[in-house]
Amino acid sequence: MKNIFVVSDIHGHYDQFVQVLSFWDKKDTLVILGDLIDRGPQSLQVIQKVLALKDEFGDQVIVCLGNHEDMFIDYLNFPDIKQDRFFKNGGLDTIRNFQAQLPNDFMTVNPVMQVEMIKEKYAREISMITTSKIFVIIGNVLFTHAGFDSNFETIDNTSAEDFLWIRKHYLTQNRTPYINVFGHTPVHLIHDSSDVWVSEDAKYIGIDGGCYMTGQLNALHISEAGEILNIYKSVIDPPNN
After folding, report:
1. CA 195 from chain center: how many Å?
2. Residue 240 confidence (pLDDT)
3. Distance from C-alpha of 195 to C-alpha of 189, rounded to nearest angstrom
4. Considering the domain boundaries, does residue 172 fall inside one?
5. Tens digits of per-residue pLDDT, 38-83?
6. From the DSSP assignment, how many helices (H) and strands (E) are in the chain?
7. How many domains does the chain have?
8. Which pLDDT score, from 0 to 100, does residue 73 have?
9. How many angstroms separate the CA atoms of 90 and 241, rounded?
10. Is residue 240 in a domain?
11. Sorted alphabetically, which Pfam families does this protein's record hold (predicted)?
12. Which of 24, 61, 83, 230, by CA, is between 20 and 30 Å from 17?
């Protein structure tokens, strides 16, 4: 029986990430459900930590794409028209974090040149992001960043955009064979707490502690059968931003 350790929505909060990783049993699969970046102070360090883990543990470490990585990819592909959207949604914090290892004139050049500098300096980091999975199924558990289109009994009807961006899918009964573990929606919007939320029928599990607002990063230890084995959290004083 395979067990999985799951983290989501780190948003550049490296210290919380390292704290919850201390609970990870290295025999278990590590799944990160996206939004490694933006809004927090150390997005680059989070990405590089995940890269180091993938170098050490290989396919035992699985990264899913989040909607913030999706915006980052859009920015890299279309900097002239996507920069404002990315920057306004926390991407400017990420770029400022990247800037420490970029040329001094980085912030003064046009967006196209900025992106070329980023691509040249951070090729491995970008490759990891762009090759991240849209969703992962392990045993009876469907791992997604945001969720899936719960109007259907199968995930085959869910678009890539919905896996990354959907909201309130958990308000509709999950008729798929899978338990859905998801991030994206801070759980205090679901049950007035930053702790992991489990639906009454246990077919939905929300784990986003809203770390960039609350300082709380949650981690879930779950079996491939969908049994919750443990829940962990790292709580650091909420950020001032």
Report:
1. 17
2. 56
3. 11
4. yes
5. 999 999 999 999 999 999 999 999 999 999 999 999 999 999 999 9
6. 10, 10
7. 1
8. 98
9. 11
10. no
11. Metallophos (PF00149)
12. 83
* Residue 62 φ/ψ, nearest 5 degrees: -120, 130
| Distances in whole angstroms, Cα of residue 112 to Cα of each of 47, 72, 89, 124 | 23, 14, 19, 19
The ranges of the chain with pLDDT < 70 are 237-241
As a three-state string, the secondary structure of 84-126 is HHHHHHHHHHHHHHHHCCCCCCHHHCCHHHHHHHHHHHCHHHH
CATH number at residue 110: 3.60.21.10
Phi (first) and psi of residue 169, to 5 degrees: -65, -25
Which value, to the nearest 10 degrees, does the dihedral of the CA atoms of residues 36, 234, 231, 175 take? -40
| Domain containing residue 201 | 3-235
pTM summary value: 0.96
Number of other residues whose CB lies within 10 A of the CB of residue 24 = 18
Q: Where are the alpha helices (DSSP H) in the chain?
A: 14-21, 43-57, 67-77, 79-86, 92-99, 111-121, 123-130, 160-165, 188-191, 211-214
Is 241 inside any structural domain? no
Residue 90 placed within a domain:
yes
Distances in Å between the Cα of 34 and the Cα atoms of 3, 69, 92, 97, 104 are: 19, 7, 18, 18, 30
Amino acid at 124: R
